[in-house]
Design brief:
heterodimer; A: 143 residues; mainly alpha; two-stranded antiparallel ribbon; 2 strands; 72% helix; B: 265 residues; three-stranded mixed sheet; 5% strand; globular
Chain lengths: 143, 265
Amino acid sequence: MIHVTSFIYNPGEHEAEKASNSYLMSLVALVAGLPLPIINLLATFFFFIANRKGTYFVRWHCTQALLSQFSLLLINSVGFWWTMSIIFSSDTLSNEYIAYIITVLFFNLTEFIATIYTAVNTRNKRHVQWFFYGRLTNLICKQ
Amino acid sequence: MKKIILQGTLIILMFFSTWFLLRQVDWMNLLNVEKTADKTEHKLGELLLEIYKQNDSVNTDKFVLQSIDSVVTKICIANNIDRDNIQFHVVDENKVNAFALPDGHLILFSGLILEAENPAELSGVISHEIAHIELNHVMQKLVKEVGLAVLVSMTTGGNETVIVKEILKTLSSSAFDRSLEKEADIKAVEYLINAKIDPEPFANFLYKIANNDSDFNQYFSWINTHPDSKERAEYIVKHNTDKVLETEPVLSQQTWDLLKENLRN
């Protein structure tokens, strides 16, 4: 699922720190924004905008962090609005809902662990490519 | 590009298959969700009824209770509704009102019974309230208007009379959502048809109280909590027209007259 390789050039200390921060940014936002999924995406997006003129290594990792947030945004939003409709409208608790929330928690936890792992490795100048998102980033982020 | 699409599809598949597999578990049973909800509703029903009985006089006339019981039982049996789930209480009050409390308690004001011209009209109102109970509208309304946290705290010790009275007021004098009212009306028509009771008198009852003089309207709480009566009466009639109906009398004329007489005394 996660592939550690060497980048096409050896990134500097400053680059590694910034690239690692892009993951930490989504991590901090993930904790703060759990009930409101859009916050994660916004935080990562602003960090991405701030670094869009950075070096290739920094840009690449900002993009991967941003892309990974999109899918979380989708599944978390569905979970959020489903919960709201149970609390405030006629929807009731069901096996489907509980199973969905557990699935969402599982995917969030996986992303959480992957993000910490990637942040640590990127800080050590190692290039971490995620399953699907790595390839998608390669397609979008050009040198 | 092909690999990206393949990997993306794989992630989506993983998500949905995890969800699908987890759906096979009966979480509601495992986490005792239904039992907890039933317990909350049961306690809430008892609490509200207790307060209600303290403030209003509940009719204990055997004949009155037996007559109403035969109507409720007829509707329940014809619709496979567990009779033990519905507990009705007749309250001596001039207002024309009826409403449902949590845990299947149905409150009927004597004013409403006296206002009904025949047993079929009364059966319509009873069916409508039973529909609210069976469709779980009462708890839905309370959760929406009072909040789940308040309801749970009330049933787990935070027994505050002010809140209980407020809830009682919400249930007895404010309307359900329009969609819930329509749902209950349509269900009530189904109940009536299954019980071989003509739904038309129910529609007539709605027309009648909607057209009443404004001076008189202050007594018609049921109509205040059930707005748009004319429109409702129209779709009840409409819902009813495509069904061929075989009707049976709900109560004999003699029983009906005696019931009213007992209520007046």
